[in-house]
Design brief:
With about 230 residues, the protein is mainly beta. The protein contains 2 helices and 11 strands. Strands 1-2-3-4-5-6-7-8-9-10-11 form an 11-stranded mixed barrel.
Amino acid sequence: MSTSYTKILLVSLFYFLGWSLFSQNDFESLGETEIALNYQLSSDYKFNFSVRSRYYLYQDDTFNFENRQLDVVHFSTLNLDYNHSLSLGVQYRVRESIDGSSNELRLTQQFNYIKKNLAVRFGHRIRFEQRILEGCTILRSRYRFAMDFPLNGEKLDIGESYLVASMEALLSASKKIKPELNHRTTAQLGWLFSEKLKFQLGLEYRFEAFNIETEEKLFLLTSFILKV
């Protein structure tokens, strides 16, 4: 895939995401910053720790910065073979002391399948989550299709950039709320600064509860990924 074609694709995608949301009168824009640590314990087992901060950038037709939540996340992953893996995760979300909403404990079970075709890597991910909040427990199922590839040649070298893009469907259910359908489209540019450090910057466009009353949100994502 040529660099010029990739640049045109990225500019078109980012323009569409930004224009479609800012043309709405009731949308919100948020930012999310993540610091992640990845550790490969053996060829078959690895784990990940991350801290994510989410904050408002635009709401009620006004640009402003306001903290919303803080997430602490852990995942342990077992490689079944070169292409398949299973993961268990636990996440704690702090909101009560920030904006007054309920804190959350989240348990996650995940299956991941990856296939590489030349320079492009494709991924299929299935997740089941139990979101335990103060007033209810929400069961959520998720399916994500993702792809990533280097923007220079067929191999990612130190100092070069890459693209990560994905689409994800989510279904949430609980005894106290109607089933909700969500959809997320994400595109991020990444840079490999060294063998141990990556940086990613991108946008995520969310349709939330579109089977009930659609809420549209634009996220600005930044990630620092450290391999230890």
